[in-house]
Amino acid sequence: MGKSAFKKYSLLLIFSGLLSNATASIAQTSTLSNNWAGYAINDAAYSDVSASWVVPQIDCSSVAGATLTGTYAWVGLGGQSDETITQTTLEQIGTVQACVGSTPVYDLFYEFFPANKNFGDSKYALSAGDTVSAKVSRNLDGSYTLWETATAKDAKSPKWTFSTTGSSPGTSPSDPGNRSAEVIMEQPGTPTDLIRWPVASYGSITFFNIGYTKANTATDHATSIQFYEPLGGNTLSTQWATPVTLSPTSFIVYQY
Fold first, then answer.
1. Which DSSP category does 235 fall into?
2. pTM for the full model?
3. For residue 96, which of 122, 117, 65 has the smallest C-alpha distance?
4. What is the separation, in whole angstroms, between the first and last Cα of the chain?
5. Which residues pair with 65 in a beta bridge?
6. Long-range contacts made by residues 137-141, C-beta under 8 angstroms, separation at least 24?
7. CA distance 11 to 224
8. Could you tell me the sign of the dihedral formed by the alpha carbons of 37, 159, 117, 169, in that order?
9. Neighbours of 202 (CB within 10 A)
10. Fewer CB within 10 Å: C terminus or N terminus of the chain?
11. Cα separation values, 168 from 2, 121, 182, 189, Å
12. pLDDT digits (tens, 9 = 90+) for 184-199
């Protein structure tokens, strides 16, 4: 599932611009999630969000015997609820890093939540070490364009570019589904969010060239999202992840 459950706690930091168009210091709130690690920008309206990352090499021997494994790295609009708006939609695009038996599999994915995820075919093959750039843009008619390109290591030009336009079920030009912008490393699981897929070891992932565009002048803030084990201890993984800011336009999610 693309959506996440959050547990907020009262740590407030002064934060000097995580994303590229944040020119002034903004407040940062820290949040615990049972399946996300990364950052979200909240409480204004956002017309796009973008980021790049290198597809991490995963070790399938670390989850030997598991039926379903994997992580999603993605950018999206509308995924995080705030105190006044309950988000019901999420438009997202990124990469999936999974194991089929002992074989690593890397793929493009996108989703107009709550519709099911879509995955790329052989035309959009990915490998560990590829540099991926992804962007979600909200259009004037209320639809969203999802875009992604991949470049092999040391290559001078992209090996493919993907784009699609659509909307999450129930969206409209007045829908507030763009009240947040996210850059996330996700541990997938069941729709109940109580059982997570085990995470094949990947070490860390760095998101960079992060940017977003505000569609209005409302005051916003950054939310640092830290992964923790789901309520009830029904996790299939003991991995935790904390995002660490490197610069105004990049951060790392460590696995440990």
1. -
2. 0.85
3. 117
4. 23
5. none
6. 137/47, 137/48, 138/46, 138/47, 138/48, 138/77, 138/91, 138/178, 138/215, 139/165, 140/173, 141/173
7. 10
8. positive
9. 23
10. C
11. 12, 22, 16, 20
12. 999 876 555 556 677 8
Three-state DSSP class for residue 69: coil
The neighbouring-strand residues paired with 208 are 52
Residue (of 100, 114, 77, 76) closest to 191 by Cα position: 114
Sign of CA dihedral 32, 34, 36, 41: negative
User: Which pLDDT tens digit goes with each residue over 51-88?
Assistant: 999 999 999 888 877 777 888 999 999 887 543 445 56
The CA distance from 98 to 138, in Å, is: 29
Is the CB of residue 47 less than 8 Å from the CB of residue 178? yes
Q: Over 60: is that where the pLDDT of 119 sits?
A: yes
Question: What sign has the CA pseudo-torsion 5, 142, 118, 103?
Answer: negative
What's the rounded Cα separation, in Å, for the pair 96 and 73? 6
What's the token pair of residue 24? Answer: 């002034």
Type of residue numbered 144: Y
Burial profile 83-99: b = 16 or more Cβ within 10 angstroms, e = fewer: eeeebbbbbbbbbbbbb
Residue 176's nearest CA partner among 249, 81, 246 is: 81
Write out the DSSP string of 15-36: E--SSTT--S-EEEEEEEESSE
The DSSP output letter for 197 is: P
Which residue, chain included where needed, has tokens 């820290």? 30
The alpha carbon of 118 is separated from its chain's Cα centroid by a whole number of angstroms, namely: 15
Full DSSP string of 148-168: EEEE-TT-SS-SEEEEEEE--
